[in-house]
Amino acid sequence: MKHTPDAAEAATLSLTIPAKDCEVRNALVAARQRLSVWGVDQDTLAAAEIVLAEVLNNIVEHAYAKIPPGEILLWIERRADALAVAVIDDGTPMPGEMMPDTPAPDLAVDVADLPEGGFGWGLIRALSSGLSYRRISERNRLAFRIPLSIHAGDA
Amino acid sequence: MELIREVHDGVVVVTAAEPRIDAAVAIRFKDRMRELTQDAANRVILDLSTVDFIDSSGLGAIVAALKQLPPGRKLELAALTPTVERVFRLTRMDSVFVIHADVEAGLAQTSVQ
Questions:
Q1: ipTM
Q2: Distances (CA, A) of A5 to A11, A42, B40, B103
Q3: What predicted TM-score, i.e. pTM, was given to this entire model?
């Protein structure tokens, strides 16, 4: 009898990523390959890659902005209905030890005034669920889920 | 950062021959786009058909490429792959750019609002 992985069988990935742009890129490609091996569908793969890119870029650009870049721990577990993700870094805390809650940038402006940033958290919030941030023992810990087959929540 | 420039009937077509426009290449992309489009006398179409992934840094770099065009010129986009299209849609940047199904469709359109 052919063995097929049980959907409930635990599949976990943990990566230690140096906090640099090029290392983030390598980690995203590696994570996507692993999730693909787990049988995660294309829409969910794309959502996971978009969210992880924004989360990891934020850490490189903000948490490690004023201190020597350290490492980022990325942990992903496939569950029945979602990918559970935790991202931990040793950088500076988010302002006020809270996730930013700024509104989406205004696009109804002259071309010269169009925003070139400020889109990351909107993408993270749009494509993830159960987002939480905690500052624990001098570390930042962001946790969230990427629902499997995300069609319904993506419109 | 592999960007290839061609001119078709006065329209500058820049092909981004890269799998990703992300934080690792965003600044180079923006600088290279300035070099390739600073003399654009007409329209500019950016062909994204080989770009599989973009993050918000890459998105910001495309906005910057629009803003640094000569006055009155517009940046149009062509051939968005599914993930790139999704990022434009979720950030509503699809409302800022004219987006063509592919370069041929963009070139066939003689005037753009």
A1: 0.93
A2: 10, 19, 55, 43
A3: 0.92
